[in-house]
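User: Predict structure, ligand magnesium ion.
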Amino acid sequence: MAVLEIKDLHVQREGKEILKGVNLKTGPGEVHAIMGPNGSGKSTLSYTLLAHPKYEVTKGDILLDGESILELTADERAKKGLFLGFQYPTEVSGVGFSHFLRTSYNALSKAMKGDDREVFITVREFQNYLKENVKSVGLSEEFLSRYLNEGFSGGEKKRAEVLQMAVLKPKISILDEPDSGLDIDAVQSVAKAISQVSDKDSTTIVITHYARILNFLDKLDHVHVFADGRILKSGDASLAQELEKRGYDWVLEEAKL
Ligand SMILES: Nc1ncnc2c1ncn2[C@@H]1O[C@H](COP(=O)(O)OP(=O)(O)OP(=O)(O)O)[C@@H](O)[C@H]1O
Ligand SMILES: [Mg+2]
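Assistant: Predicted complex:
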C-alpha cells in the first residue's frame, strides 16, 4: 500500500517560484492524469517529487504513507517505491540497459523486503522476465544489450522509460509525458503497459497534453488541471475530454487567473 500526499507545496528554482501551493493525494491503485499548459510547472513537480537538487522546497510537504520524504535523497525515495519516467530521458553511455534494470530491480527488492516481489535467482531468469516486458512496450530485445538510452530515438526513449516502470514495479509512478513523440501504434501499447503495472497496490500519475493516451488506459480515476504552479481543478475521466475540446482558458477564467 502506498499513499502519496502533496501538501501546499511551494518550490523555487534559482530563486524563481515555480510551484505555488500544489495539493494532491493519491490512493493505492489509483490512476491520475495531470494536464496543463506548457511551462506551468508539471515537470518541476515531478522533479521535486524525486528530489532533484536544483529544486528547493520553500513551503509545504510531501508525504509517503503519512511520513515526510522531504529529507530523503533521490535514491532513498526510489527505494521507498517512487519512480519517475522522465519527459527528456538522459543518455547514459557505458551503462548497459539490462544490467541497469537488474541492478535497480535487486536494489528495490532488497529495500522493499516483505513486499511480495518476484525473486529471480539467475541472470537467465531475469533475462526471461525482461524479454516478456520488452515486448509489451513494443521494443525489440536488441535494446537490452545497448547502453541506456544511447542513440535511442525519441519514441524509443519513451518506451524505455515505461519499460523501466514495468520491470521495476514501483509503488508510485510519475510518468512525465510518456506519450510525447510516440507513433500512433506506440501510444496504445505504452498505455497498455501502463495499465498492466497499475494494479490494486500501484499508483500511477500520468502527465500528458493529450486525452488520446488516457483513452487507452484500463482505468482513470482522477484528472487534474495544472496551471500557474498549482492544481486549479480536478474531475473524473470526462474532464480530459472536455479539456481536449475546450482548451484551458475556461479553467483559468473559472479560477480567475
Ligand atoms: N533555471 C530556471 N530559471 C528560471 N525559470 C525556470 C528555470 N527552470 C525552469 N524554469 C521555468 O519554470 C517553468 C515551469 O517549467 P516546467 O518544465 O516545470 O513546465 P511544464 O509544465 O513541464 O511544461 P511542458 O508542458 O512544456 O513540459 C517554465 O516557465 C520554465 O521556463
Ligand atoms: Mg514538462
